[in-house]
Task: inverse folding
């Protein structure tokens, strides 16, 4: 990894890029994942590279869903494996969720490398290699494990493809998406949309889980029942607009 001084004004962003590039070199992340990372980084910049209030609300609701679920699963792709393997393992451990590798650019070799990468960060059993069930999709994101995503009641899908998100919702599953683009198909289809950087979102969710594990099922359900995903998406759009207005004002640019 290239040495990046910690006082660099873009330190966090550059470290993220390095992790993705390293993931490609390790055979974990696809080349297409580099493009997806750049798109997400652009939206993160628009939102101010921070966890906005509505995202924190969505993260708490996501935790409540994971804690009340009977068969929760966290889906892992190449980018998340490269960026946040430890956080994925920690969140799965404290919520009781299973980890399952699911890839658009799928190969047995990549599945194996990601599973081993997650195990190197403390994971026990990781699903995804069996591929003994199929969602009704025309690409390889539809290949899933029967004991994992196929029969899950709640699925956390960080950095997701919109059509698989839609399909999972159609199957009656609760789908939690982490997506910095509030108007993506994934964001608009998910049950819970977390408009936040995956690195911040997972750390926040780990923190919230430690707080909320002591809550009763009734208390967790109250958190879920009070949630409005459309409002969260609207709030994210407003936050982007206000951040851009503030930037323009700071630079003396008239906002139209």
Result:
């Amino acid at each position: 990894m290239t040495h990046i001084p910690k006082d660099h004004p873009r330190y966090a962003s550059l470290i993220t890029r390095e992790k993705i590039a390293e993931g490609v070199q390790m055979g974990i992340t696809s080349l297409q994942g580099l493009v997806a990372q750049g798109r997400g980084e652009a939206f993160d910049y628009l939102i101010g590279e921070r966890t906005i209030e509505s995202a924190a609300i969505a993260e708490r609701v996501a935790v409540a869903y994971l804690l009340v679920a009977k068969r929760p699963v966290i889906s892992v792709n190449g980018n998340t494996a490269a960026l946040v393997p430890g956080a994925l393992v920690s969140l799965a451990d404290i919520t009781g969720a299973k980890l399952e590798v699911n890839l658009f650019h799928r190969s047995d070799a990549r599945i194996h490398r990601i599973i081993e990468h997650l195990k190197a960060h403390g994971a026990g059993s990781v699903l995804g290699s069996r591929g003994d069930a199929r969602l009704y999709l025309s690409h390889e994101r539809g290949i899933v494990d029967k004991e994992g995503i196929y029969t899950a009641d709640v699925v956390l899908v960080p950095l997701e493809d919109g059509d698989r998100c839609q399909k999972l919702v159609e199957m009656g599953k609760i789908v939690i998406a982490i997506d910095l683009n509030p108007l993506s198909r994934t964001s608009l289809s998910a049950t819970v949309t977390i408009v936040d950087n995956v690195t911040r979102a997972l750390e926040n969710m780990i923190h919230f889980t430690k707080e909320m594990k002591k809550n009763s099922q009734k208390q967790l359900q109250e958190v879920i029942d009070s949630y409005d995903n459309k409002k969260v998406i609207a709030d994210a759009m407003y936050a982007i607009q206000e951040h851009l207005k503030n930037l323009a004002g700071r630079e003396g640019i008239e906002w139209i």
Notes: The two ends are 42 Å apart (CA to CA).
